[in-house]
Amino acid sequence: PNMYTALEKLFEGSFEEYGLHTDIPQEVSLQGIEVRDGIAYVDLSVDSIDTINDQNIIEGMAKNIALTLSQFEDIDKVEMLIDGKNFEEVGLDFECDEAIPAFANHY
Length: 107
What we know:
The chain is an alpha+beta fold. The chain has helices at 3-12, 55-69, and strands at 28-36, 39-46, 77-82, 98-99.
């Protein structure tokens, strides 16, 4: 699959029949992805910024996205955006850059 399709699957929700889950809240949707200089900029949309205004939610989303994109060799890092803006621009005081782990158990 391509990057967008892989992320679409992640954002569709839980894969409980496989014993897997996602940390992406239902109120968050994927708008697009752009890769520049090894960084995947993943553009998201949220119903309300309050939905993701929690460090644990941000970290869970970032890890899920990074692990999903780890199958693509040209991506070293993930940065999440909200409606094309970085977290600071939308009023979130969290770091959201996530390095792609060499192995899933690094999380």
